[in-house]
Write a structure and sequence with these properties.
Strands 1, 2, 3, 4, 5, 6 and 7 form a seven-stranded antiparallel sheet that branches. The chain has a five-stranded mixed barrel with strand order 12-13-14-16-15. Strands 8-9-11-10 form a four-stranded mixed sheet. The termini are far apart. It is globular and about 55 Å long. Helix content is 24%, strand content 35%. It contains seven helices and 17 strands. The longest helix is centred in the middle third of the chain and has 16 residues. Strand 3 and strand 4 form a beta hairpin. It has 312 residues and is of the alpha+beta class.
Length: 312
């Protein structure tokens, strides 16, 4: 049986391309987010709100209320999927194929640098536009890891390679572009402080490379109902899933146990021992377990995680 993993892509007969946002199948559907459409020989990329409106107007059957997360999401019946794109297999194929494509050549170059410095690139994958062949001359490179230890090794290598000038840090203009694209609720200076310490973004030949982790989500058999918006100041007690999708932090609070985040903007945002201000939706399970959810969509309007006190 096919396993659908976060960061995989799937395609429908209508040439709609969706990113998988939750591992597995829920009631015969794969939970996804519409990212691209290919029509009249051209690629069109969607942000979440635009994609949702497009589906409402054209393909309402691809919208679905998920009882597990108490929200309407993009979701495809398994039988509607005509092609499944898997990051690992795609990357290994691209690394073996000579090409004159500048984006693919930069992909090969960054993988070679990582490999020459001890990273096992057989554990890497490629997602985003390169995975489905939608890249253009200005496209970023989105590397994805399915092994937590190798992902963190890559982050440490990125830091060392920047120090040795084998890879470059993002420029101020790059950070500004990323900040605007994300629609982040923090100020630019706050955003920059958080991002620069993550070492999950680098440049090669002036092209941005994103490094992300895809792990099976922690199974939670509970179902939740939304209790309304909440803003809370709280201490992070555990951060080992801070780069997962969804991001998960344990917190020191008498009634609320966890922060769950569904937007990569706040991936790796906080560390254990730090105090954060968090804005999101309070959710409560039928057994009384409570959590804060940040980012019901990719843009996470009004939601944020902001470090306000760090011991380091």
């Amino acid at each position: 049986m096919t396993t659908f993993k976060v960061k995989d892509y799937v395609k429908t007969a209508e040439n709609l391309y969706f990113a998988v946002i939750k591992e597995g199948v829920e009631k015969g559907r794969v939970l996804v987010c519409l990212r691209y459409i290919f029509q009249s020989g051209c690629w069109e990329k969607f942000e979440t709100a635009t994609a949702t409106l497009f589906l409402q107007q054209n393909y309402p059957d691809y919208l679905y209320y998920s009882p597990s997360i108490d929200v309407e999401v993009h979701a495809l019946p398994v039988e509607a999927i005509v092609k499944h794109y898997q990051p690992h297999d795609c990357l290994q194929t691209l690394l073996q194929q000579p090409t004159e494509n500048a984006v693919i050549n930069d992909l090969i170059a960054v993988c070679t640098i990582f490999s020459d410095n001890g990273l096992d690139i057989t554990q890497l994958g490629i997602t985003g536009s390169l995975l489905i062949g939608a890249q253009k001359s200005t496209s970023d490179i989105d590397l994805v890891f399915h092994d937590r230890a190798i992902f963190h090794q890559a982050r440490q290598l990125a830091r060392q390679l920047i120090a040795r000038n084998q890879l470059q840090p993002l420029t101020q203009a790059d950070w500004q572009h990323a900040f605007i694209r994300r629609g982040c609720e923090l100020s630019f200076n706050e955003y920059l402080w958080h991002e620069k310490r993550k070492y999950n973004k680098v440049l090669i030949h002036n092209r941005k490379v994103d490094i992300s982790l895809s792990q099976p989500a922690i199974h939670d058999p509970r179902t939740y109902s939304k209790q309304g918006p909440i803003v809370l100041t709280v201490k992070i007690t555990e951060d080992s899933h801070g780069f997962d999708y969804p991001i998960r932090y344990s917190i020191d609070h008498l009634e609320i146990s966890t922060i769950i985040c569904f937007t990569a903007t706040y991936s790796g945002q906080a560390k254990a021992g730090e105090w954060v201000e968090v804005s999101g939706q309070l959710e409560k399970s039928e057994t009384g377990y409570q959590q804060i959810v940040v980012g019901s969509d990719r843009e996470a309007k009004g939601d944020f995680i902001r470090v306000i006190n760090s011991p380091s």
